[in-house]
């Protein structure tokens, strides 16, 4: 009789632990994209599009494989415009873990990368900023060069980082 | 009845149309090249194409296109050149490439320049179809969607759809885009020169990944033999007859997406009928750039474009990758 009672308590405890663990493992839904005007002179100009890993080829066919092999879970992307002129795209890759984000960041660097203080690590070029924070890998690319671009992109990157 | 002498005379002047070439233009040019037994490829350059702006100068792009087609067809007047390439009663598809996004997609100025010459050569606006995988890709090229058949049509496979039945060639089994299979009599490929993370190089033949459903299934083995195999599918092989390759802007590493830190402006067009020779030429151009900036060869980087040799092999016979069998004109 006592044995049966202990067994019930054990099952109940297991269910409780499993429930808590499940809740803890679920990532909070993150909207990493700064609202229009939230970062000075930047406007969000498109809807956010989200691609699951299996559909990533629809967005970056050919590039998708390297993200998939690094454990990408989903990718979100939005377009922005700076002072109504400079167009940029913000891609946020949600990886399975921080190691995946690190792998992508480190594999894509070239010698002219400038290290910047963003998230866990980041680099900047004349027309792009790439950084990682936890499982997130963020890539911001401007389509044209301009004297303002490096600082403007960095400001937008900080805006994204603050939302991660 | 035509005598043998008349027959040979006609052939020698390039007016004879042979085999499948008779369906479309290009017959004369093909015949002339056949006489020297080499595949002609023209690289036309203009070092001042971009000036100080981010986009190439429209007038200079038109001039560059005219020089390239004139050199290719041995005609002085651009409209006469285009009459050798297309026939007025045909529906001509322009397969652009907007996969890389706004920064590295087929340039709008080139597309518009071609459309202008096509119309001057007698093609009705509604018989020109500019297409790619989807609306996003087309918009990345700066195009506005249009399905009105009285004007130049611009829409993607996402609108027109794919055939129900798969076609198989070699290792590949794919569903073709209906724009290719049903709407176009002839297609001119307008790829943009890029590095590719798996295939090494993406240009003329790889651009055909955009005319099939689920191209991601062809990426295995560095896209080899996927690229060569789909180009052997009769509809693709027969209809995609000419390449006007956009090498005005390129990425020499990090492709096929837009990586501005690896952006490069070759300021060139690469033109030809032999898609293998065109791709081989483009590959060498990328290798030279990578060497110039101290980057490893594609072989050393672990992604040589092996599909180019495959496309030239005895099983595929899509063209030549042997420089000795190419007639390369650099202007």
Distance between the termini of chain A: 52 Å
CATH classification, class level of chain A: Alpha Beta
Strand content of chain B: 15-25%
Question: What's the alpha carbon Rg of chain B, rounded to whole Å?
Answer: 19 Å
Total count of domains of chain B? 2
The count of strands of chain A amounts to 8
Interface with most residues: A-B, 24 and 26 residues
Largest sheet of chain B: 11 strands, mixed
Q: Which structural class matches the secondary elements of chain A?
A: alpha+beta
| CATH class bucket of the largest domain in chain B | Alpha Beta
Uncertain regions of chain B: pLDDT < 50 for 5+ in a row?
1-24
Task: Summarize the structure in words.
The complex is a heterodimer of chains A (164) and B (331). Chain A is of the alpha+beta class. Chain A has a single domain (28-163), classed as Protein Transport Mog1p, Chain A (3-Layer(aba) Sandwich), CATH 3.40.1000. Chain A has helices at 2-25, 57-60, 64-69, 98-107, 149-163; strands at 42-44, 49-52, 72-82, 86-95, 114-115, 121-124, 128-133, 136-142. In chain A, strands 1, 2, 3, 4, 5, 6, 7 and 8 form an eight-stranded antiparallel β-sheet that branches. The longest helix of chain A has 24 residues, at 2-25. Chain A is globular. In chain A, 35% of the residues are buried. Chain B folds into two domains: 1-37, no CATH class; 39-330, Rossmann fold (3-Layer(aba) Sandwich). Chain B is 34% helix and 18% strand. Chain B has helices spanning 4-12, 27-36, 58-73, 78-85, 108-120, 135-140, 157-160, 178-183, 220-223, 226-232, 234-239, 275-292, 307-312; strands spanning 39-45, 92-95, 128-131, 153-154, 167-169, 172-174, 186-189, 192-196, 200-202, 240-251, 263-264, 268-272, 326-330. In chain B, helix 3 (58-73) packs across helix 4 and helix 3 (58-73) packs across helix 5. The interface between A and B is medium-sized, with 24 and 26 residues.
């Amino acid at each position: 009789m006592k044995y049966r009672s202990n067994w019930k308590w054990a099952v109940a405890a297991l269910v409780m632990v499993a429930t808590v663990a499940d809740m803890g493992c679920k990532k909070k839904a993150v909207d990493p994209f700064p609202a229009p005007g939230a970062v000075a002179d930047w406007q969000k100009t498109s809807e956010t599009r989200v691609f699951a890993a299996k559909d990533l080829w629809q967005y970056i066919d050919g590039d998708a494989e390297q993200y998939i092999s690094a454990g990408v879970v989903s990718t979100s992307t939005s377009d922005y415009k700076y002072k109504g002129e400079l167009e940029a795209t913000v891609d946020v890759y949600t990886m399975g873990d921080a190691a995946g984000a690190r792998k992508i960041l480190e594999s894509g660097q070239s010698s002219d990368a400038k290290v910047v203080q963003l998230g866990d690590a980041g680099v900047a070029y004349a027309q792009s900023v790439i950084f990682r924070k936890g499982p997130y890998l963020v890539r911001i690319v401007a389509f044209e060069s301009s004297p303002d671009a490096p600082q403007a992109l960095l400001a937008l990157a900080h805006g994204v980082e603050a939302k991660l | 009845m035509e005598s043998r002498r008349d027959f040979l005379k006609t052939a020698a002047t390039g007016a004879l149309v042979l085999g499948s070439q008779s369906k479309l233009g290009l017959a004369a040019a093909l015949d002339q090249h056949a006489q020297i037994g080499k595949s002609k490829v023209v690289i036309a350059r203009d070092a001042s194409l971009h000036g100080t702006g981010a986009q190439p100068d429209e007038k200079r792009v038109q001039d560059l296109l005219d020089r390239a087609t004139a050199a290719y067809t041995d005609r002085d007047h651009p409209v006469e050149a285009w009459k050798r390439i297309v026939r007025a009663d045909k529906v001509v598809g322009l397969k652009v490439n907007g996969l890389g996004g706004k920064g590295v997609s087929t340039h709008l100025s080139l597309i518009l320049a071609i459309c202008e010459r096509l119309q001057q050569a007698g093609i009705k606006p509604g018989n020109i179809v500019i297409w790619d995988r989807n609306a996003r890709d087309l918009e990345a090229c700066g195009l506005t969607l249009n399905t009105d058949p009285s004007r130049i049509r611009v829409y993607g496979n996402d609108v027109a759809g794919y055939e129900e039945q798969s076609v198989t060639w070699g290792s590949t089994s794919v569903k073709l885009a209906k724009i290719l299979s049903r709407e176009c009599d002839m297609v001119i490929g307008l790829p943009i020169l890029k590095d590719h993370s798996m295939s090494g190089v993406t240009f003329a033949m790889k651009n055909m990944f955009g005319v099939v459903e689920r191209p991601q299934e062809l990426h295995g083995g560095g896209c080899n033999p996927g690229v060569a195999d789909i180009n052997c599918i009769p509809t693709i092989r027969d209809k995609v007859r000419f390449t006007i390759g956009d090498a005005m802007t390129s990425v020499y590493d990090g492709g096929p997406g837009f990586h501005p830190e690896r952006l490069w402006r070759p300021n060139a067009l690469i033109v030809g009928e032999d898609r293998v020779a065109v791709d081989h030429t483009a590959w060498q151009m990328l290798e030279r750039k990578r060497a110039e900036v101290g980057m490893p060869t594609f072989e050393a980087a672990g992604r040589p474009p092996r599909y180019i040799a495959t496309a030239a092999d005895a099983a595929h016979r899509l063209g030549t990758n042997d420089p000795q069998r190419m007639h390369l004109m650099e202007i």
